[in-house]
Design goal:
The protein is mainly α. The chain is built from twelve helices and no strands. It has a single domain (25-313), classed as Mitochondrial carrier domain (Mitochondrial carrier fold), CATH 1.50.40. It starts with 29 loop residues before the first helix and ends in a 12-residue tail after the last helix. It catalyses: L-lysine(in) = L-lysine(out); L-histidine(out) = L-histidine(in); L-histidine(out) + L-arginine(in) = L-histidine(in) + L-arginine(out); L-arginine(in) = L-arginine(out). One of its GO terms (cellular component) is mitochondrion.
Length: 333
């Protein structure tokens, strides 16, 4: 599969033959296709609205006390939250990802595209390396965002009307953590986030690359959109499976101390204690909810970004091929 070109061509009649035009190689032309990266960043908003309830369930299952578990599984967790906290309970902490993911999408696709251009050839290995670079860099935004999200998701667990609120919203959460713990508190779980995100995003873009090559996505193919959706969805699933145990540890570290008492000294201590208390299954807690969320959210994100870039690319090609205005010379007759 190394070096094999997908037949997708954008703006065929005018495209420079030396220019990269395949999917997802087109993503490496991000900078030239989009003058403003925020034009695509909004694609994460719809995904957050659809996927956040699944994420709330995932976090609740990952961090619940094994001695006194509140939830028996994914669907019981859904039912319990709706019954005890109303449907709005599933959307606790949504403000943080709604604000953060727009920037994360811009950073991820921007860094991945520019890194791929710097690496030169559009190969599966370079897709993995470019994706890994993007995953590592976006942790600067991702870690504080997920810290606030996690704390908000756990606030008022099992209460229809919260008697006491530690945090008014995600921003208030970050401000209070900063005042109490400083930058170190804001970046709680940063190392585990980097360990999770770096290879995860590498597999994310690698899988999308391999899937689009294998499915033979072509611009004139009437099934190109379903193919892009399937490729994006599978990318999300593979991405999560590749590092899911690390996500469990990250959630536990970021939730640690919510009740006032900290349990873990660090990543290794969290791994050791979690395994001793619950066995290997602890590292799969919340996986069902995660996979149910991963496919539709990532299918929509990748397909929307790719189609938008295809459109922008074709518009640019058409402008490059315009003959320009005809200047009328004054008649000498």
């Amino acid at each position: 599969m190394q070096g094999q070109d997908s037949p997708l061509q954008i703006g065929r009649g005018c495209t420079n033959p030396d220019e990269e035009t395949r999917i997802p190689g087109i993503l490496k032309n991000w900078k030239s296709n989009l003058k403003n990266k925020s034009n695509v960043a909004w694609t994460g908003a719809a995904g957050v609205l659809v996927g956040h309830p699944f994420d709330t369930v995932k976090v609740r299952l990952q961090v619940q006390n094994v001695e006194k578990p509140l939830y028996r599984g994914t669907f019981h967790c859904f039912q319990s939250i709706i019954k005890q906290e109303s449907a709005f309970g599933l959307y606790k902490g949504i403000g943080s990802p709604m604000m953060g993911l727009t920037f994360i999408n811009a950073v991820v696709f921007g860094v991945q595209g520019n890194t791929l251009r710097a690496l030169g050839k559009d190969t599966p290995l370079n897709q993995f390396l470019a994706g890994s670079a993007a995953g590592a860099i976006q942790c600067i935004i991702c870690c504080p965002m997920e810290l606030a999200k996690t704390r908000m998701q756990l606030q008022g667990t099992g209460e229809y009307k919260q008697k006491t609120k530690n945090y008014k919203n995600s921003l208030d959460c970050l401000i209070k953590i900063y005042r109490k713990e400083g930058l170190r508190g804001i970046n709680r779980g940063m190392v585990s986030t980097v360990i999770r995100e770096t290879p995860s995003f590498g597999f994310y873009f690698l899988t999308y690359d391999c899937m689009t090559r294998y499915l033979g996505c072509e611009a004139e193919d009437s099934y190109v959109i379903p193919k892009l959706l399937f490729s994006g969805g599978m990318s999300g699933i593979v991405s999560w499976l590749s590092t899911y145990p690390v996500d469990v540890i990250k959630s536990r570290l970021q939730a640690d101390g919510v009740g006032g008492v900290t349990q873990y000294k660090g990543i290794l201590d969290c791994v050791r204690k979690s395994y001793q208390e619950e066995g290997w299954k602890v590292f799969t807690r919340g996986l069902t909810s995660t996979l149910l969320r991963a496919f539709p959210v990532n299918a929509a994100t990748f397909a929307t970004v790719t189609v938008f870039l295809m459109y922008m690319r074709s518009e640019n090609d058409l402008r490059e091929c315009d003959p320009g205005p005809v200047i009328q010379q004054p008649s000498s007759l």
